[in-house]
Amino acid sequence: YVPPQVRRAQETQDDKKREELGRLKKMVNGLINRLSEPNLSSISGQMEELYMANSRKDMNDTLTDTLMNACVTAVAMPARLMMEHVLLVSILHHNVGIEVGAHFLEAVVKKFDELCKSDAEGKECENLLALIAHLYNFHVVHCLLIFDILKKLVSIFTEKEIELILFLLKNVGFSLRKDDALALKELITEAQRKASTAEKKFQDQTRVRFMLETMLALRNNDMRKIPGYDPEPVERLRKLQRTLVHSSGSGKDTELRVSLESLLSADRVGRWWIVGSSWSGAPMISDTNSKTQQKLHVGKVSSKIMELARKQRMNTDIRRSIFCVLMTSEDFMDAFEKLLK
After folding, report:
1. Which of 27, 44, 102, 225 could pair covalently with 217 via S-S, beta carbons 3.0-4.6 A apart?
2. pTM above the 0.70 mark?
3. Distance between CA atoms of 158 and 16, rounded to whole angstroms?
4. How many helices (H) and strands (E) does the chain have?
5. Residues 242, 243, 247, 253: what is their CA dihedral angle, to the nearest 10 degrees?
6. Where exactly does CATH 1.25.40.180 map onto the chain?
7. Which residue range or ranges hold the MIF4G domain (predicted)?
């Protein structure tokens, strides 16, 4: 039972909160609408002030919603506009805290996954992919996520996916080559294998051939072979980013090294990539995993050692396993190997 006076206080509080959020949304919207390269410095400064004045959660939600409404449209967004929006996120990510970039990235990736599964006719998928590509260009996210997305697209391999692969490689291909040439090489091999098996499937072979040519151009570091490739705008905005980021650690240490799977299952297993992110659900390791682990060690280790572990009050599976490893290892190298496993 909630007494009437408490109920009334709650209702007025809710109205107040709604009003505040509405006002915040208007302010953020106004700033995003005016966003352009020359005034990026003043707008990012005003955004930082808003972050200081309001709760992080409200700001993250409002900023993500506003940017998604602005960038994810049924028609293709101009590349320059897209870059400026993402650059704002990256500056806030470096200056305010990594949860800004992490919140936006998670929303974008989930939306992208959702739209890929549905047969949407518009250009929303390309726009979302462009957002992810530029988040990588401006050091918000590590190349691990980009490779995960490319692998997923290559595994499906329909005409829509080929378009998306081409689009992504054109935007970030040479950066991927710089960051992890081996993974790119493996991806190209897999795509070639897929293309040779799927030749009968496509009526129009030119797209597949063009994709393979683009990939080979990337492997050979030949920029001339990729039509319309121009790294200059990204480079110019990266220079601007360096001037606007306060901390000297604007580079690799704030990159989110998170995989596609982790982002899509964040609601189930928590967000390990955000420091201090509260999590009240099930533990990250699945139950089946821990059960098999337990059986495994019980099988290998004699009952005598298990009895010792019990006497030493090793009361969880993981403690028991570590104790058993230490007690049964031949030497320190053996113990080290087993503990890593």
Report:
1. 225
2. yes
3. 50
4. 17, 0
5. -10
6. 4-265
7. 25-222
